[in-house]
Each structure stands twice: as structure tokens, then as C-alpha cells.
Design goal:
The complex is a heterodimer of chains A (about 400) and B (about 80). Chain A has about 400 residues and is an alpha+beta fold. Chain A folds into 3 domains: about 10-150, Alpha-Beta Plaits (2-Layer Sandwich), CATH 3.30.70.2500; about 165-230 and about 300-380, Sulfite Reductase Hemoprotein, domain 1 (2-Layer Sandwich), CATH 3.30.413; about 235-295, Alpha-Beta Plaits (2-Layer Sandwich), CATH 3.30.70.20. Chain A is about 30% helix and about 15% strand. Chain A has 14 helices and 15 strands. The longest helix of chain A is centred in the C-terminal third of the chain and has 19 residues, at about 330-350. The radius of gyration of chain A is 25 Å and the shape is globular. Chain A starts with 11 loop residues before the first helix and ends in a 28-residue tail after the last helix. In chain A, about 40% of the residues are buried. Chain B is built from 3 helices and 2 strands. Chain B has a two-stranded antiparallel ribbon with strand order 1-2. In chain B, helix 2 (about 30-40) packs across helix 3. Chain B starts with 8 loop residues before the first helix and ends in a 9-residue tail after the last strand. The mean pLDDT of chain B is about 90. At the A-B interface, loops of A face helix 2, helix 3 and strand 1 of B.
Chain lengths: ~400, ~80
């Protein structure tokens, strides 16, 4: 069956987006449209948007589920009279399991719930990390929430809240993991339930846990508080494996040493030597020679602050707050640090001001003083970049 | 001597509700604004945790609701039948 009118949507412009070898969201919405009338109206409204070069969504408002201030993003069509099935098309954010691991049973359960109460369209996963359920009416929000809760799922964060923490697959699948990112993500989620469901802050606060400096969850670019795995000692080297790479044709000079950002590696044709104190943990060499090099044995994480994507102001990358915390001390350190950061932000943050923007406004020294941390050299965001200070290699005999 | 007896949570909730009601249609208040107002009014007799509990009473009883207008605010619930 098509929709109430029985007519398939005319989607001349959208059809162009089905061409080519790559996946197409239009194709997927059309597929959903075979059983969902709201998916059909969604196509019709989108076609109109392409024709008029104008969006037809309004978002925000008062929608939600009882007791929660987050997890539901109100969305309304300003062309609801033309497309009644998407007049209300709210989004639900469902808190994802750490590392995005589901059983197929769990996914079936989620999809069944969503087909009963919503459009059937999902986004797995949104850039927030949550599982996104796209499109339902206000009256269906509470019943959907109740069914999700009975199936063991909870809503995630939205608005001026502690947003659903997310993490990479960490120790579950990755040999580079320097700490258990999935466990930390779960522990943080459980520790800050109140701040996630009852938005208390000047604006959003995101935490992402990456288990190694490859940063597969883009914590450094997206999270207000980035927890990125690293090591304190020396890169572990298997010399015979290094030679195997060289024998197999890898150009160690060109592909490894020359691309090292701090030029801390040298290859003499037989032996790879590393100045570990110059290493900036970029992971390039380890990624190129995974069988020969490994992160060090003294593992933990660096805690960084201030990252964000551009919304109110421009994008910011996180900068170092605590250079190294041993893996086993991470949760306790984070709890104390987060408490102090929130206290300072609550007190001095402007409305809709992210932590990174606050730090830019008041300055890092004031922020550090406010949260009771001493400055350390690793906090310098662009070392050796000051044109008034020259670093030179000491000559023989000079101190 | 300063009286440091805690203000009962129910009283805080009522005062917060009045603040939201007085500002309805004029100014949007964030949860932090309500907390700061209460602490300014009662001093050490009122803590952030107390305000959190008071706000919870208002939300759980549906006397106030969260709204999203670029950020999260506390508002009175919409009147029945009103379009949001």
C-alpha cells in the first residue's frame, strides 16, 4: 500500500540522488515508504524543499517525555497542511550501548517498537553517538518511551545537558586501546544520569572516550571533554618485524620517518631508532607497521578540554588539561575534574556558551585557577610557535 | 549569627514556580537562573542540591516543563489545545 491517497510521491529531483554507486538515503526512505505513510510525506516535503531551495522544518518547543528534559527533539513542518503525516515529526535519541554493540535481537526489538510508534526510519548512528529514531507525533512519545524502557533502553541527552557519552570500540576489538574506553563510557553514563536527563547547564556538555590517539570517535574535535588513550613510556619495538616490513618493500625512510611530525625516528637501513621523549603520540608509525610497533606498556589517557563543532562560534579543537592519568585512576580523576569544571562553568558561563568558548573568553590561566589546577607545559596548545622565543639546539659545551 | 537552617525543598519549589510564572511570556529562565536566584535570596540556607531537588518536584508534578529554544529552559506547561 502507498499512503492514504494511494499515490506514490513524485520525486523527480530526489531521484537524482539515487544515481551512482553509493548508498542513497532517498532509496532507503522510498523503501520505508512502502509501509509508512509518513516516509512518503517526508519524500514529498523534501522534494518541495529541493524545488524551492528552502527547508520546511521548525525545531524545538515543549515536547518531551514526563520527567525528562532531554532525549526528544521537537520537529514540526511549516507545510503541515500539505504533508499532514509529517506535521509533527519528532526525533528520539536512544542511549546507545558503549561501542555500539547490539545483538540482532536488540535491533529487531528497537525496530519493531519504532514501526509501531513512528515512521520506522532510523539513523544508526547520529553524530551525537545516540541511536536516532526519526519521526513521530507528540502523542506517541510517551508510549514509545515506555516500550523502550521495558526493553532495557533509555533516552540519551539533548539540549543544555550532559550529552550521551560515546566511545570507540576500545578493548573489545582494538589492540591499540590504552584503557577500557567502553567501561569508562558506561560508568560515566551511569554516574551522570541526572545531568543527562534533566538539563542543568548553560549549554551542552559532551564527553567522548577514545582508547588511543587514533581517536576514532573524533573526541578532540567534537567533545567538550575528550579522554584520549595514550602511553607514558616508550613505543614497543619488535626489531625483526621492522626488518620484515623493510624486506617486504616498505620504504621506512619515506613512509615512516619522513612523515613523523616531530621527526623523532631514524632508519639507517638496519635499525629503527626512536627518540621517545620527542614522540607526540601521533600513532602514524604504529599504524603503518602494526606488527612491529606497539604503544608503550605504561598506559592511561590524556584529558583534554574545549573541543566543539561550529554552531554559535567557530570550531575548536580540545587542548590538554591533564597530560596523563593512569588507566586505573581515570574514573576517580574525571569525577573530581568534571565537578570542578561544572562548578566554574555554572558560575561564569554565559547562556549558550560552551566550556571551550568560556576558556577562550576568560583565558586559560583564569580557568585553571578556577578549577584548582596548576599549569604545565603540555597545556601550551602550539609549542615552539611563539615568534619571540627561539629554541635552538645547544652547541657543544653549552648548557 | 547567620541562620543556616535549610529552606524546605517544598518552599524552594514554590518560590521557583512563582518565578517561572512571573517571567512567563517575558523572559526565559534556565535551571541555572532559578538556582542562582534561590541562592541569592536564601544564602547558605539553600544549596545547589536543594535547588535541584526542588526543580525535580516541579518537573515530576508537571507544574513546569523543560523547553528547547536554542538551549534548555524551564517554562509553564502549554495550555490545553494551544499549538506549540
Amino acid at each position: 500500500m502507498a499512503n492514504d491517497s494511494g499515490e506514490k510521491p513524485e520525486t523527480k529531483m530526489l531521484d537524482e540522488l539515487e544515481k551512482g554507486p553509493w548508498p542513497s538515503f532517498v532509496k532507503e526512505i522510498k523503501s520505508a515508504g512502502q509501509t509508512s505513510a509518513s516516509a512518503q510525506d517526508l519524500l514529498r516535503q523534501l522534494e518541495l524543499s529541493y524545488q524551492e531551495k528552502k527547508g520546511h522544518w521548525k525545531h524545538g518547543g515543549l515536547v518531551g517525555v514526563l520527567g525528562y528534559g532531554g532525549g526528544v527533539i521537537g520537529r514540526y513542518s511549516d507545510a503541515g497542511d500539505q504533508f499532514p503525516k509529517v506535521a509533527q515529526f519528532h526525533t528520539l535519541r536512544v542511549n546507545q550501548p558503549a561501542g555500539w554493540f547490539y545483538t540482532s535481537d536488540a535491533i529487531r526489538t528497537l525496530c519493531d517498537i519504532w514501526e509501531r510508534h513512528g515512521s520506522g526510519l532510523t539513523n544508526m548512528h547520529g553524530s551525537t553517538g545516540d541511536l536516532i529514531l526519526l519521526g513521530t507525533g507528540t502523542a506517541e512519545l510517551e508510549p514509545t518511551f515506555q516500550e523502550l524502557a521495558q526493553a532495557g533502553f533509555d533516552l540519551g541527552g539533548s539540549g543544555s545537558a550532559f550529552r550521551t557519552p560515546s566511545c570507540c570500540v576500545g578493548m573489545a576489538r582494538c589492540e591499540w586501546a590504552c584503557y577500557d574506553a567502553m567501561k569508562l563510557c558506561y560508568d560515566l553514563t551511569m554516574a551522570y544520569q541526572d545531568e543527562m536527563h534533566r538539563p542543568p547547564f548553560p549549554y551542552k556538555f559532551k564527553v567522548k572516550c577514545a582508547a588511543c590517539p587514533n581517536d576514532c570517535v573524533a573526541a578532540i574535535a567534537r567533545a567538550d571533554l575528550s579522554i584520549i588513550g595514550t602511553w607514558k613510556d616508550e613505543i614497543q619495538v619488535d626489531e625483526s618485524a621492522v626488518n620484515e616490513y623493510a624486506s617486504a618493500g616498505l620504504n621506512l625512510q619515506k613512509d615512516v620517518c619522513d612523515l613523523c611530525p616531530s621527526k623523532c625516528m631514524a632508519w639507517d637501513g638496519h635499525k629503527l631508532s626512536i627518540e621517545n621523549h620527542e614522540c607526540v603520540r601521533c600513532m602514524h608509525c604504529i599504524n603503518v607497521m602494526p606488527k612491529a610497533l606497539r604503544p608503550g606498556k605504561e598506559r592511561g589517557a590524556v584529558i583534554m578540554i574545549g573541543g566543539k563543532a561550529p554552531i554559535m562560534q567557530g570550531a575548536l579543537l580540545s587542548s590538554v588539561l591533564v597530560p596523563f592519568v593512569p588507566a586505573e585512576e581515570l574514573m576517580d580523576t574525571l569525577k573530581e575534574l568534571i565537578r570542578r569544571i561544572w562548578d566554574f562553568w555554572d558560575e561564569y558561563g554565559n547562556n549558550r556558551e560552551r566550556v571551550g568558548e568560556l576558556i577562550q573568553r576568560v583565558g586559560l590561566p583564569v580557568f585553571l585557577d578556577g578549577i584548582g589546577l596548576d599549569p604545565v607545559p603540555e597545556m601550551v596548545s602550539a609549542p615552539r610557535d611563539n615568534p619571540y622565543i627561539y629554541f635552538q639546539v645547544a652547541k657543544d659545551g653549552e648548557k | 549569627m547567620t541562620d543556616t537552617t535549610s529552606v524546605p525543598i517544598e518552599i524552594l519549589a514554590e518560590e521557583m514556580y512563582q518565578l517561572v510564572a512571573d517571567c512567563a511570556g517575558k523572559k526565559n529562565l534556565k535551571p541555572g537562573d532559578l538556582t542562582k536566584e534561590m541562592i541569592a535570596k536564601h544564602g547558605p540556607a539553600c544549596s545547589k542540591d536543594d535547588c535541584k531537588k526542588a526543580l525535580r518536584i516541579l518537573i515530576d508534578s508537571s507544574r513546569c516543563v523543560y523547553s528547547y529554544l536554542g538551549g534548555t529552559y524551564i517554562q509553564l506547561p502549554p495550555k490545553p489545545g494551544s499549538e506549540i
